[in-house]
Design a protein that fits this description.
The structure holds three protein chains of three kinds. By secondary structure, chain A is an alpha/beta fold. Helices cover 44% and strands 18% of the residues of chain A. In chain A, helix 2 crosses helix 3. The two termini of chain A are 13 Å apart. By secondary structure, chain B is an alpha/beta fold. Chain B starts with a helix and ends with a helix. In chain B, strand 7, helix 9 and strand 8 form a beta-alpha-beta unit. Chain C is of the alpha/beta class. Chain C is built from 23 helices and nine strands. In chain C, strands 5-4-3-2-1-9-8-7-6 form a nine-stranded parallel beta sheet. In chain C, strand 3, helix 7 and strand 4 form a beta-alpha-beta unit. The chains are: A alpha/beta, B alpha/beta, C alpha/beta. At the A-C interface, helix 1 and helix 3 of A face helix 5 and helix 19 of C. Strand 2 of chain A pairs parallel with strand 3 of chain B.
């Protein structure tokens, strides 16, 4: 990666959940780890997130949900990215997500799921790996 | 993976994915960027209007930009936006937080937005932003807005890419006009006092009206807006249109573009030469003694 | 030893009046050896410093408690927040809780309801019934309170932006049961200011939202005088990462804003102020939390007296509900959470809370099971009946640490409140992002301490184990959404649609003016206009607030 190249990540919250403490923390931590973070805030539809991700040509998308709607919303973002012509952008997610849902979410195309208590270093590594694997060009 | 041809085809089709990818390639200094930039539609580029929006943090630039987009979209214009945010000098990362104020336009295919970080580049940022402007223009954006915080030199330089520059201020931000970077006040074609419903707005407007643009007799025009309520936008756009028209007629637009173009070419020269020169310098293992400027002249004499 | 005359004076006044109204729970409170537990411990002689800063429970500045007998007279209300899925399911859980000994109901609504969307709105997809009960119309509300006597049970409703509508529905259900609105008891959270900075269920911008809130104050003042019109909340601000002093500062600053807004609208201070309630967080630093609650009480009393000239006790008393801190619940070794909740609940009780919700151990994973809710409730019951802390008032008073910390938190909070005032007030600070930044910075700092291992969270960054056992979790069936959508369709078939349209139009016209909207909303609700229909009218007139990052 050239000296002026940076990993770009979009962080957003799909659905109606308004608790953004975690998302804001991740955004800031990623920034401190050298990422460029497009923070899109709360109450976003999967289509809005996908459209923004495509325009910003991000290397990964990070989602957060604490309202139990992740099974519906996270795969919807993966689908929206596909429809927008960017099925190659990896999606990572975090929040209040039971273990048993993680398998299904991964099957639906979400690359990593972070449950409460995951150390930030683990999360940053995961984003770095995800960004690396996205084919560029 | 997108090949150059597919990308160029995508740009013609106004495919958001192609546009996004093209801008990334330019930003990363990828070699394929060259091919893309050479194949852009020069006519569209020369016709587009580039609006620069700058000002101190907290003035409401993003909110104002959002209003301008809404109004221009009502007129069925296709718009491009480049939002510049500073990179952290420590980590090199950045929070690109302008887009959040404009998310209502996220799924509108005729609003092409890109967030950019300064990445510690000096002229380099301008070069990249200039290329992004050209890409947006050539895929049909008739108005392109560059939004940046007017605090650092690189952000200041960005503004020279614009045909018309707006300086957005707001009362109570603690910024004395005297304390403002003199360059900003001189460079602006139009001043906007946002949050015009707040105390001190009128006084700020009066203070601004006494500032004249360098080399001109006419005092700078001040528009009043309340971006959070969408007030004053129509009048502002009307003023912008008037200025645009005046500039086109008087040749000012051409003059500025010409100067900006020369600057941009210079920036690219420096961008391209920078890594080679640095490699050369490093290889020499220069001693700490002696005048750096003389050493530079010596190096430049070398082939 | 002879009592200080000031003490006797308090006994003969506030205490006597209270005992006349209702006696203490027991004739005598004794310990294991049969010795009497004193009602209130004080230094042997009471100087000005003591009287000014601590004083007596039930007397200004209320540092030691808002009632003269506190838990000796009546235990705090054990009010467990609950609700999920359909009204019918939630109704079952409420009746279970009442059987198990909760003394008040607390309703959790799903996000679509909280944000004014019906269950069939595209924005509601995937969210119906997940974090609370789905209420689309009065019909759902009737089901929710089926077999629950509104004349006997007080209900707290965690609803903000559409609070006016849910309140109208609640009163309407009461009327159908034959309970007169004057006897309706409960609380609506109705605290929009904190939504913009910490919770995110806003709909409309600040100005029209404040109008709705003052409409509620006014309407309730006349129609439902026993109902608390607002629960000014610090809980969420703390959950978002603020410090204890910030929690107090931002909450009380919001409180002052509501008071000022109501006064500006011409309402009478001593009429609405008595129905203001508060809601705080009980976090893990036991001693700091106790000091925080005492500081909040004292500071509010002083602000009400000095800034607004309040004179009635009822206007000066900070009455609050507490919830143990959700953000301290770990997903690992979840039984440890029972211990955390116990410490936090203890802090709330030692801090003099009027009502308390204790979290369940499994809530870092999902909504609680019946069993874990029962344990959470038992925690409160054990504190109340076995620990002795409810038998004497404000027992930590006089501790050098507690008193100096109480003073410090009050000072720091007041400094922040003044700063907000100087910066143009709460609404301005929200627009500028000042409050959000303060909270974010505190949250970031706290989280980084955990990441760096400077702050230990047992089971999470220290004392971890490999866990294979998966806890049983509550799952909300996705069919709930279909059920609600079907019921909505049926409702719209069976009601008088012409009437609904006509009433919604009347509401729209009234919203454009400055009348009190409650009567219009009440009429709409009684004809089974849906929550979404009413909110859409208001959205049209008031506009929508958007996240600004």
């Amino acid at each position: 990666m050239g000296s002026t190249q940076k990993y770009r990540v979009l962080i957003g919250k799909p659905g109606l959940d308004g608790h953004d403490r975690g998302a804001k923390f991740i955004a800031r931590a990623l920034r401190d780890a050298g990422f460029e973070v497009v923070y899109t805030g709360i109450r976003r539809s999967p289509e809005e997130i996908a459209a923004a991700a495509v325009q910003e040509d991000v290397d990964a998308v990070g989602l957060s949900s604490l309202s139990g709607a992740h099974m519906r919303l996270f795969p919807a973002v993966v689908e929206a990215l596909g429809k927008a012509g960017a099925p190659d952008i990896p999606v990572l997610g975090g929040g209040v997500i039971p273990e048993e849902d993680i398998v299904a979410l991964k099957a639906a195309g979400i690359v990593e799921i972070f449950t409460p208590g995951t150390p930030i270093d683990t999360i940053i590594s995961a984003y770095q790996n995800a960004c690396k694997t996205k084919p560029s060009g | 993976m997108m090949t150059i041809d597919r990308l160029l085809e995508g740009l013609k089709q106004r495919d958001p994915r192609a546009i996004g990818r093209a801008i990334t390639l330019v930003e990363n200094g990828d070699e394929s960027a060259q091919a893309i930039l050479s194949a852009l539609d020069e006519d569209l580029i020369s016709q587009a209007t580039i609006l620069g929006i700058t000002g101190p943090p907290g003035a409401g630039k993003s909110t104002l930009t959002n209003c301008i987009i809404s109004e221009l979209r009502q007129r069925k214009e296709r718009i491009g936006i480049i939002a510049v945010d500073p990179s952290s000098p420590i980590s090199g990362g950045a929070i690109l937080g302008d887009r959040i104020r404009m998310m209502q336009h996220a799924t509108d295919q005729d609003v092409v937005m890109r967030s950019m970080a300064t990445r510690g580049r000096l002229g380099g940022l301008c070069a990249t932003a200039g290329a992004a402007v050209r890409i947006m223009a050539s895929c049909g954006c008739s108005t392109i807005i560059i939004e940046t915080v007017g605090v650092g030199q690189s952000e200041m330089d960005i503004i020279r890419l614009a045909d018309i520059t707006l300086l957005v201020l707001a009362p109570g931000l603690g910024d004395d006009i005297q304390a403002m970077k003199a360059g900003l006040l001189e460079v602006a074609d139009l001043m906007v006092v946002n949050k015009a419903d707040c105390k001190g707005a009128d006084i700020l407007a009066m203070d601004l009206e006494t500032v004249t643009r360098k080399g001109s007799d006419t005092p700078a025009q001040v528009s009043m807006t309340v971006a959070t309520e969408g007030k004053g936008i129509t009048e502002l756009l009307s003023r912008i249109a008037t200025i645009d028209s005046e500039h086109r007629d008087s040749g000012e637009r051409e003059r500025r573009r010409s100067g900006a173009h020369d600057q941009e070419v210079l920036d690219w020269c420096l961008e391209i030469m920078r890594p080679k020169l640095l490699a050369k310098i490093t290889k020499k293992r220069l001693s700490l003694l002696g005048d750096p400027r003389l050493k530079a002249k010596e190096i430049l004499k070398e082939k | 030893m002879p009592k200080d005359p000031k003490f006797t004076e308090w006994e003969e006044n506030e205490l006597a009046k209270s005992l006349n109204r209702f006696p203490e729970r027991k004739a005598k409170f004794t310990n294991h050896g049969g010795e009497e537990i004193p009602r209130l411990s004080t230094p042997p002689s009471l100087d000005e410093t003591y009287l000014d800063s601590q004083g007596f429970p039930g007397r200004y500045p209320y540092t030691r408690g808002v009632q003269p007998t506190m838990y000796r007279g009546r235990l705090w209300t054990m009010r467990q927040y609950a609700g999920f899925s359909t009204a019918a399911e939630s109704n079952k859980r409420y009746r279970y809780l009442l059987e198990q000994g909760t003394t008040g109901l607390s309703v959790a609504f799903d996000l679509p309801t909280q944000i004014g969307y019906d269950s069939d709105d595209p924005m509601s997809i995937g969210e119906v019934g997940k974090v609370g009960v789905a209420i689309d119309s009065l019909a759902d509300m009737e089901t929710l309170f089926d077999q629950i006597p509104l004349g006997k049970v007080s209900t707290s409703m965690t609803i903000n932006s559409p609070a006016a509508i849910l309140l109208a529905m609640y009163v309407a259900v009461g009327e159908k049961q034959g309970v007169s609105p004057e006897n309706i008891k409960g609380t609506i959270q109705n605290d929009i200011l904190k939504e913009y900075v910490a919770r995110g269920t806003y709909i409309f911008p600040p100005k029209p939202s404040l109008r709705l809130i003052t409409n509620i104050f006014q309407w309730c003042g006349q129609k439902t005088p026993a109902f608390n019109t607002i629960s000014i909340s610090g809980y969420h601000i703390r959950e978002a990462g603020s410090t204890a002093a910030q929690e107090v500062a931002f909450t009380l600053a919001n409180g002052c804003t509501y008071v000022q807004t109501a006064l500006d609208a011409g309402l009478e201070l001593e009429v609405f102020a008595r129905r203001l309630a508060f809601f705080f967080n009980a976090s893990s630093d036991l001693l700091e939390e106790v000091a925080k609650f005492r500081a909040a009480r004292r500071l509010w009393a002083r602000l009400m007296k000095e800034r607004f000239g309040a004179k009635n006790k009822a206007s000066l008393m900070l009455r609050f509900h507490t919830q143990t801190a959700g953000n301290t619940l770990a997903a690992q070794q979840i039984d440890n959470n029972i211990v955390r909740v116990t410490i936090q609940a203890l802090a709330a009780v030692l801090g003099g809370t009027q009502s308390l919700h204790t979290n369940s151990k499994d809530e870092a994973h999902s909504l609680p099971t019946e069993e874990s809710v029962r344990t959470a409730l038992r925690t409160q019951q054990i504190l109340a009946h076995e620990s002795g802390v409810a038998d004497t008032i404000d027992p930590l008073a006089g501790s050098y640490y507690i008193e100096s910390l109480t003073d410090k938190i009050e000072r720091d909070a007041l400094a922040l409140i003044d700063k907000i005032e100087e910066s143009g007030g709460v609404v301005k600070c929200i627009e500028e992002g000042f409050i959000q930044r303060q909270i974010e910075n505190a949250a970031y700092q706290y989280q980084m301490e955990i990441e760096r291992g400077e702050r230990i969270i047992v089971g999470m960054n220290k004392f971890q184990i490999q866990e294979d056992k998966k806890p049983p979790l509550l799952r909300v069936a996705p069919e709930v959404e279909n059920t609600q959508v079907a019921m909505l369709a049926e409702l719209k078939n069976n009601r008088n649609n012409d009437q609904v349209t006509s009433l919604l139009t009347k509401l729209e016209i009234a919203s454009q003016g400055s009348e009190n909207l409650m009567p219009y909303i009440y009429d709409c609700v009684k004809e089974y206009a849906t929550l979404g229909e009413i909110c859409n009218v208001l959205r049209k007139v008031f506009g929508e607030y958007k996240d600004r990052g």
